[in-house]
Amino acid sequence: MKTNMKIINKIAIALVLGLVFTFTSCFQDLNLEPIDPNVSQTFNKDAVFAKVYASMSITGMKGADGMPDINTEVIDEGTSSFFRMIWNLNELPSDEALCCWIDDPGVADLNGNKWSSSNKMVAGMYARLTFNVTLCNHFLEQTEDLDDADTARQRAEVRFIRALNYFYLMDFYGNPPFAEKVSAENPTQKSRSEMFSYIESELLAIEPEMFDAQAAPYYRADKVAAWLILSRLYLNAQVYTGTARWADAALYAKKVIDSSYTLAKPFNHLFMGDNGKHDGSAVNNAWQEIILPIAFDGLQTRTWGGALFLIASTRNADMGASGTTENWAGNRARAALSKKFFPTGVIPPGADPTDLSGAAGDDRGMLFSKDRTFEIETNRGVDFKLGLSVAKFTNLRADGGANRDGQMVDMDVPFLRKAEAYLTYAEAVLRDNAAIQGGLTAKDAVNTLRARANATPFNIVDLDVVLDEWSREFYFEGRRRMDLIRHDRFGGSDYNWDWKGGTKAGSQFSRIYNVFPIPISDINANDNLIQNEGY
Predict the structure, then answer these.
(1) Which of 85, 116, 433, 511 is the most buried (most CB within 10 A)?
(2) Is 455 domain-assigned?
């Protein structure tokens, strides 16, 4: 299958009608009957394969909205986007982002670390992940008896996507429901350690069947994507299972580092409208770092989530052109994030307020301070100008060319990128010096990223430095909560940030919040499920 995935997403809309999800008991309500009686009910392998990938970008079967994957009683369709939901659950409860939209269901509780099993955002993420898993299960069931080489590779990729969705179910919900078949029966529940073993075994099993590094059609997963998720899995193994796997984390991170993917320069090209391989840019080579993008195209993949969410939710009209007419003024930097670049809380005189990266001495410090305050003085969220704005994401092209659409965006979400492997490796070998691979030190790995960002190299690197580097490199990319938990800086910890726990000075919250609750609707619908402790 050699078709560009941006085109495949369009094909999926035409061919895979009827994939709608009614959320009552996670897996059993995926309706696989076509809505249109004129549409053939024969399983279309390539179309469903396309929909598996499209489930990470679009939210339904009709443009930006209108035929949603997820029942809108559970979550608004635009919010139900795979990456938008991951972003909300990993960023809003952390020391990085604070959202203005406190009247949107679930937002205020994420901002203040006090959600319950009835939280709309928690239910929406759960619904998206279980929908995606069920779609993968459907594809794998229908292709079980096919043994041609093309299908074998597709099956490996779909198993990868399923393992990826199960990774997030495990990370967010601890002990999620589990099924490998589409069935009317309620799924059973697996423990977090059982989920860890399953995900590990799946990734190891499929790796030989996947494309070699950069041999896959762009937007499809290759072996390096499997290695990177394995390294992430092992890095967090102590959280998930109680047993550390630092050496394995370093081993697989080093495999990614040694692969043919390369770090993109300059840094900001990673987050621009022509960051994809097929965007026709002779200037932007960001795709050489992006191991797995989530594909977006202003004409073909129209959604209120994904890349548009990243750009529009972090910008106001006063920040200048961004390649889209959408400026939602929602998510801005907590002071704790801004202090990663300006530790004293003071921006140097003469700094360019529209781009603070120069003043920060770090190309990654893409913050905007014009008419902004450094501190967020109230958590009522009515004023987007309280707190620095994040100008990291834009639909403008590095080559100055025109976008495909004035509203919807072309920027791909750089979902998995090589930089993660350097910080995974650095952290793993700091925790276990015996894990060092090929003489590469933690300091070398961290300073490789700092050199790319034109930042001063560190003379000493420890775990606190690495945790801060995770933020400098990946802020607002949808992962921070996971890193804080691994470093024991989240629930139950003394590490503080502004508006932690809902107070300006920050206040401690319980360790129960290190996992989210299983939505109460599914607990009530499925007797096999036991709620997570404390909810």
Answers:
(1) 85
(2) no
CB of 57 closer than 8 Å to CB of 295:
yes
Place of tokens 């198993």: 159
Neighbour-count burial of 258, counting CB atoms closer than 10 A to its CB (0-12 exposed, 13-18 middle, 19+ buried): middle
C-alpha angle 217-220-221 in degrees, rounded to nearest 5: 120
Containing domain of residue 302, as a range?
264-417
Which of the listed residues 417, 441, 465 is the one where a domain comes to its end? 417
* Sequence letter at residue 471: S
The whole-angstrom separation of Cα 472 and Cα 166 is 27
Contact 373, 105 (CB under 8 A): no
Instruction: Compute CA distances 112 → 107, 123, 173, 331, whole Å.
Output: 9, 17, 19, 14
* pTM for the predicted model, two decimal places: 0.93
φ and ψ of 189, to 5 deg: -115, 140
pLDDT given for residue 66 in this prediction = 86
Q: How far apart are CA 448 and CA 187, in angstroms?
A: 45
- pLDDT tens, 83-131? 999 999 999 999 999 999 999 999 999 999 999 999 999 999 999 999 9
Residue 260 has pLDDT above 60, yes or no: yes
DSSP string covering 225-287: HHHHHHHHHHHTHHHHHSS--HHHHHHHHHHHHTSS----SSGGGGGSTT-STTS--SS--GG
Residue at 305 is within a domain:
yes
Which of 483, 482, 534, 474 is CA-nearest to residue 509?
A: 534
Question: What is the three-state SS of 183-236?
Answer: CCCCCEECCHHHHHHHHHHHHHHHHHHCECCCCCCCCCCEHHHHHHHHHHHHHC
Name every residue whose Cβ is closer than 8 Å to that of residue 240 and which is 6 or more positions away in sequence.
170, 171, 192, 193, 195, 196, 233
Cβ atoms within 10 A of the Cβ of 148, count? 9
| Inside any domain, residue 28 | yes
Q: How many domains does the chain have?
A: 2
Q: Is residue 56 part of a domain?
A: yes
Residue located via tokens 């590095």:
398
